[in-house]
Amino acid sequence: MRWLRTSAEGFENAFARIVRNRRESDTQVGRDVANMINEVRERGDDALVDYTARFDHHRLSEDTDWRIDAADCHAAYDALDPELRDALELAASRIRAYHEGQLPEDRDYTDDIGMRLGARWNAVDAAGLYVPGGRAAYPSSLLMNAIPAKVAGVERLVVTTPTPKGEVNQLVLAAAHIAGVDEIWRVGGAQAVAALAYGTERIGKVDVIAGPGNAWVAEAKRQLYGVVGIDMVAGPSEILVIADGNNNPDWIAADLLSQAEHDPTSQSILITDSEPLARQVEDAIDVALMRLSTAKTAKTSWDGHGLIMIVDSLDEAPALSDRLAAEHVELMVDEPQALFDRLRHAGSVFLGRHTPEAVGDYIAGPNHVLPTGRRARFASGLSVLDFMKRTSFIDASHAALAAIGPAAVKLAEAEGLPAHALSISTRLK
Amino acid sequence: MRWLRTSAEGFENAFARIVRNRRESDTQVGRDVANMINEVRERGDDALVDYTARFDHHRLSEDTDWRIDAADCHAAYDALDPELRDALELAASRIRAYHEGQLPEDRDYTDDIGMRLGARWNAVDAAGLYVPGGRAAYPSSLLMNAIPAKVAGVERLVVTTPTPKGEVNQLVLAAAHIAGVDEIWRVGGAQAVAALAYGTERIGKVDVIAGPGNAWVAEAKRQLYGVVGIDMVAGPSEILVIADGNNNPDWIAADLLSQAEHDPTSQSILITDSEPLARQVEDAIDVALMRLSTAKTAKTSWDGHGLIMIVDSLDEAPALSDRLAAEHVELMVDEPQALFDRLRHAGSVFLGRHTPEAVGDYIAGPNHVLPTGRRARFASGLSVLDFMKRTSFIDASHAALAAIGPAAVKLAEAEGLPAHALSISTRLK
Q1: Is ipTM beyond 0.90?
Q2: Which of B169, B165, B89, B185 is nearest to B136 (CA)?
Q3: pLDDT tens-digit readout, A177-199
Q4: Domain A27-103+122-230, architecture per CATH
Q5: From A138, A364, A391, residue closest to B117, measured CB to CB
Q6: Where along chain B do its domains lie?
Q7: Of B85, B223, B247, B302, whose CA is between 20 and 30 Å from B201?
Q8: Cα dist. B26→B29, B32, B37, B304 in Å?
Q9: B359·A424 Cβ contact <8 A
Q10: Domain B27-105+122-230 top-level CATH class
Q11: B228 interface with A at CB cutoff 8 Å
Q12: What is the CATH T-level fold of the domain A2-23+235-364, as seen in this structure?
C-alpha cells in the first residue's frame, strides 16, 4: 500500500506513473493463444480433447463428458438451500428489471423531404458466455452475463466452462437454470473461446462472446474480436473510494477489501481530505484482514496495489478520479450528487454512505461487468446492447430522390466515383 | 462473376463456401503492424518522421509539415465550387439531423424498494479519425465519421491523414471545416493509428479511433482495440441487391457497379427470381463498364467477386441474405417492407426501386460506415454511441440496503467472498 499527497512535491509524476501503469497484455500469452486458436480452428473437437486433458485433467469422450444438460441444472437448482435460492431469484429479477429498461427503441420516421429513415434493432442469433471454473466460478457473474443476453432476445445462449478433474460448480448450474442458458459445454480456456468463435464438430459457433476469464481467455477474446463481437477486454478489478472525514472507517475498510479479495492484482484506492480517517481505515484494514478467509489474496493486493491519496480538498477528487477512470467509484460524502455531477469517467458510481460497491456486484440491478484498466474513458458496462445490433434503413420515393439526389451526384463526381453518380442519375432521367 | 441457382445440385456447398470465404487478416501484416506500433510507442515523433518519409515521401520537419491548420481548411472551403459546397453542406446537415436522433437518454429512477438506479451517458474526451490519402480520400467519409463524434459531444476531434509527397486533398479539408475538426496531422498508415492510441511528443492521445483505411490501418486498429475504443474492423465493401423481374436492369447494373468501383476486392451480389432480368443486368454491366472511368477496378471486382443467384422464389431471399449478412441490402421489389420484416442481419437496407445505395453513401442521413465481412451478424453502423460511454449508478438509502442487502450477503458468502459480505453487513448492524 502506498500513500500520496496531492500537495507533496513529486505528486504529479508519481500519480502519472500510477495512471500509466494500468497494465498491458503479455506477448508470450499472445503467441500461445494464437497457436491454440489455430489448433482449434484446424483440428476442432480433437484439439479440445487434447487441451482439456492437459489443462483441466478432464477426459472428453462420452457425450456426458462434453455437456451438462438442462436436467442437471434443474437438479442443482432444486437442491439449493432455500434462502440461497431466494437470494439468486431476487438478484435475477432485479437484474432483469434493470436491463429491460435498456432495450433500445427502433426509429422510423419520414423527414421534411418525404424520405423515410430509421433504424431497427435485432438480437444476435447466438451468444457464448465464458464462465471460469474453480475459485472464480461465480453464479452472480453468470446472471450478470446471461440475463442481458436473454433480455436482448438471444435465442441460443451457450456457456463454456472448465470442469477441472470433472468437478462442476452446482451454484453456477443453478444460476444457469434461472437465467435460461441453452447449452453448457465442459471446455475452458482460450480453446473454449476459439470453439465459440469458429465452431467445432460439436459446438456451434456464436456471434458474440462475453464473460470473464483469466489472461488466456481475455487474450483469446481480444484476438478474435472482429471474427465475433466481444463484450470487452477485462483486466483486474478496481475500486476508488472518495470519502470525507465523517465516515466509519470499518465501512471503507470493508469496501476496499471487497475488491482486494478478488485477485492479487486488484487495486483499491482511497481519496480523502482527512488524514485521520485515512489512518483509521488503514488500521481497520489490518483488523479486518485478521478474520477474512480471503486475507492472503486481499493482503497481497492491498500491499502491492493499494493507494491512499490525501487531498487538500475533495474538490480535487473529480479530476483525479477521471484520470484513473476506475471501474467502481464510491462517493462517501454528504452530498454525493454534487461530486457525481463533476465525474465523467467511471464504470459505475455508488452514491452515499449506504451504497457499498458489493450491493452492485450482486443485487441492485445494474451490471457488474464494467470497464477496467482506465477503459471507462471510452467503454461502458455490459448491457443488452452488447447482444444486439442495429440495421439502418432508407426508403426514398421518386420525389425524395429527386430532391436530394442531384447533390449526391455532385459529391460522387467530385470523389471520382462515376457508378455511384450513375446509380442516382439514371433513376432521375 | 459467378452464377448460382438455389435449385441446382451442389448449391448448398458452393454457397456455404462463399459465406465462409469473407476474408481473414494476413499474418504478415499482423507482424509488421505490431512492430510499427512498438516503434511509435518507443520512439514517438522520430518513428513518425521515419515512416512518413519512407511510405509517404513526405518530410516532417517544420510545424507546417506536421499539421494542417484551421485557416487552410477554411480557405479550402471558401475556394469550393458553390454547387459542391452546397452539396457538402446539405449532406452535413442531413447527417447531423439523423445522428442527433441517436443521442441516448440518461436513466434515473427510484424503484419499488426506494433504491435510486440509473445510467448517465458522456462523450469521450478525444476522438481520432483516420482519413485515407490518395484515391480513397473521401470528403463524404470525413463527414460520416466526424459529425457523429461532434454530435456526441467530443471536445477534441483529431484527424490523421497521409499526404503523399505533401499533397493535400482540398475537398477533405473543406469537409473538415464543415464538420468542425479540431486538429489535422499529416501522418498516415499504422503509425498514425499508433500515435493516436499512445500519443507522441506532438500528437496527444485519444480515447476512440474511427475511420477507414487499408489493411495496415485496419490491423493497427484491431491490435490497439482495448488500449482505445475503435469503431470496427472494416473490410471490403459489399452490396446485395434482391430484385424481382420487374426492374430496370440499368439501375441494378449501376448499383452493383457502385460497390465494385470502390475496390478490386469489393463484392456485388444479385439475388433474383428472374433469369431474364439477371441476363439483362449482366449485359447492362458490360455496357456501363465501357464508359466508366473506374471500369478497371469495377471489372476486376465484378469478375472476381460478383455473384448472381437465381432463386425459385424471392421467399428464399431473406434466409440467404441473413447468411451473407451484407453491408448494404437493396430491396428492389413492389413490397419491400414485407421482405425487410423478414431480414435480421444487414448493415443498412435500401427499400424500393428509388433508393439506390449511393444515396445513403452521401446524403440520406444514416451513416455509411457499416459492418462488412458478415459482421452485421453482431455489429452496427457507426453512430454517436461509438463516441460515448455509459456510467451506471446506484444510490441506496439505509432502508433500501436493509431490504435487499441480506440476500447479497448470502450470495457473497456462497461465493466465498467474505469482504463483500462484510461491506454490507457492517452497514446493517
Answers
A1: yes
A2: B169
A3: 999 999 999 999 999 999 999 99
A4: 3-Layer(aba) Sandwich (3.40)
A5: A364
A6: 2-23+235-364, 27-105+122-230, 396-428
A7: B223
A8: 5, 10, 17, 19
A9: yes
A10: alpha beta
A11: yes
A12: Rossmann fold (3.40.50)
